[in-house]
Structure formats: structure tokens, C-alpha cells
Design goal:
With 450 residues, the chain is of the alpha/beta class. It contains 13 helices and 20 strands. The chain has an 11-stranded mixed beta sheet with strand order 4-3-5-6-7-8-9-13-12-11-10, with helices on both faces. It binds zinc ion.
Length: 450
Amino acid sequence: MPLISTIAKVHRWALYTKHPLFARAVAELDATQWYEPERIQKRVWSRMQSLLAYAYKHVSYYRQLFQEQHICPQDIRNPETFQHIPVLTKRLVRENQKSLLSDQIDMAKLIQNYTGGSTGERLAFYQDQNYWFYNAADKARCFAMCGYTIGDRVAYLWGADYDTPQGKMATLRDRLTYNRIWINVFDLDKSKFELTVERLQRFCPTLLIGYVSSLTMLARYLQKHRLTIPSVHAIESSAEVLTLSNRKLIENTFVCQVFDRYGCREVGNIAHECEEHTGLHILADNNHVEFLTAAGQPVTGGNMGLITVTNLSNYAFPFIRYQTGDLGRPSDRICSCGRGLPLMEVVEGRTSDIILAPGGKLLHGEFFTHLFYKLDAVRQFQVMQTSRTRLLVRIVWDNHPDAATIAFLEKTIHEHGDPQFEIQFESLDRIDKSASGKFRFTISEVPLEF
Ligand SMILES: [Zn+2]
């Protein structure tokens, strides 16, 4: 164990040396979080002006938008003038894929990324190297808030696909590089819980990271079987809203603090809890956040609003005033930790049910968002389990129903979900949110046997 920890530290040192841009982003974000709020804002608007000037010059979508709205990027220097720029919705990103790309980029150096989004609407988009360095630096800063230092053992309860190393060699390399393990939560069943706990007890992670519902399930299993994983000193939860009851369950079971993270694949980490747990610190020096009413005005009086983000580091495919589809509330409180980053609460976001497959496998909602990532023909989806064996897959098509996509979905759900599923497909013009206002991309009417 100490040897792998040392190798991981050496690797990080090599990364800093090899990529000075990364080292600079780490040093910058480490320092700016402690600035006074006014100094952070000054920095945000300086970076914003660079981004807006670049977008006007090199991104045809923004050039046309600014010209239509008579916006001159140099005039946008503060929150008031910034509001003149119309918001960017998921629909607009889908419809303007090509014109949102900078004319200065080398496509070979870009990373294409995907999301199932908070509203079941899939999106494909691009991120450049500058974005990835800042995003990695921001992740490192968030881990540090959890008390993690480079070389510490980390375990992920995650989905086994694009995010995770594939194959034995890649897994070994990942382990040596980052001193971490990945536990696939896309195919958990009762027998695998036992193995998962054994694996965690053997690996002794100090930091455990996972989807809220996976952490909750694991906590319930540990409580029921009177088991513990004493090595865990901190837990980072993400991807779903962390309710107070789930936080208490996880904290009481693992006897450690939970640090909630809010982010999305389009812009990376947006907000993260610090050791004082007074809300989530908006990582404003990399992602500028606004909270807007449905009419596009800033919310007032502690009300909640649509979370609208501008990423300050992705120049290849700028997300300027991008609406994530989640609801949050800004906070005026000052955190006693000393960071100048503002605080917020995430009120409503994505929510998913776990699907209990006929054979007993528990399918996490993220299994389905990841399944839909790369399907161009699909605009929006929702999966409903109406009985133990029946799945209803609702799809809003981009143009028209696509037989090859349906065949692919059927095959993949049978192969990686459960072969006993009877799958019915339904084509719709739109899929509405539930009465609570949340969009549920998986809904199960089958109670979980636990
Ligand atoms: Zn704080």
C-alpha cells in the first residue's frame, strides 16, 4: 500500500512537470478560493471578458447572437450587463452544434463528451485541453476539501463505462497512477453487495465517492448486516440531490462526514461542500453561476432559481449562460472556513429510481443515462418499470423513430441489464416533469427487496 501511494505521488509530480498549464491551474485555484469575495469577482469578470471577446471573434453562434442583440463584448463587465446575453438551453446546444465550435481549434485535440442531463435530454459537445486542466485542478481542490491528499486511497462506486478504466492493463495503470479502485454499481445484486463490502474492507479507502443512491444502498446493507468500513474518513456524494435523511443515514453508518458535490458533464464541478458544511461553495473562479426566474431575471429574497452557468475555461465550445435544468438557491451567508467563494444550495435536480431486474440485479438510473449518451437519434428519454419484468422506454426522437436505435437499446438492455425484460417502446412529442417539478429519468413501480 505505501509503495502504491508513493507511486501515485510521483505520478502527480510528473504530471505537474509535464503539463505546466495544469500545474498553473492547480496553483491558481488553490490560491483564489481564499481571496476576498470582491477580489474573486474581479478575477471572474476579467476571465469572462477574455472568453466573451474570444467567442465573438471565433464562435459564429455567439458572433451572430451578439450582433442580433447589439451586444459589444467589451461593454459586459458586471452581472447587470451580462444579463443582456440570452441564455443557452440544451435545445439550443443541440440545434447549434457546429456553430458553437470555435473556428480556431484542431478537432484532433478536442475531447467529445456526452450527457444524459438532468432532464433526460442527451447532448453531445466538445471540451478543449484548457478546460480539462482547469477541471482536473478543480477536482483536486474539491478532494482537498474532503481532507484528501495525493496518494491517499480512493474508492469509487460508479458506472462501468466511459468514465472508468476498461480492461486489466488499464485498471492496473489507473490503480498505480491514482491509487484508486472502481466498483461497478450498474450491476449490483444482493451477492455483489457482500463482495463489494469485502473489497472495500480489503482496500481500506480513506475517501469513498459515489452516486447518492448507491451510497444510500450500501449504507442500508452495512446497517442490516452490522458491518463497517472503518478506513473511510470522508465521503463525496454526487449526481443526485442529497436529502437530509440520506445524509444522516450515510454519516451515521460510515461515522464520517459527507461532502456533497454538484456538477455536470457539460461544465464540470460547479459547487462543493467544505469542512464547515454551511452549504455548497460555488467554484465561481472557474464556473460563474446565476440563479434565474423562468422569465430570465435574477431571483431575489432567498428564492430558488434555474441554475445558469458560464464556464470560464472551455474556449473550444463555450457554454455561456447555460441552463443545467436544475434548481438552486443562492446564499448570502459567509462560510467560517475563510474561503471567499459564495455559497448555494441545490434544491432540485435529477432524480432516478433504481430498477430491480427480474433476475435480482439492481440497475442504477445512471445505467440508462450512460446507455443513451451516444444515440444521436434520441432527443429525450424516460424509462419506466411497470412490473418486475416489464420496461416501458419512452423516447422523444430527434427526427423520426429509428429502428436501428431501438434494436441497439433492446439488445444492450437484455445483455447488460437482464434478458428477461419485456421491453416496450413508446414514441412521444415531449416528456413532462413529474408533479413535484422534478424530472425522473427512471421510474419504478416495483418495490425494492432489500
Ligand atoms: Zn467553507
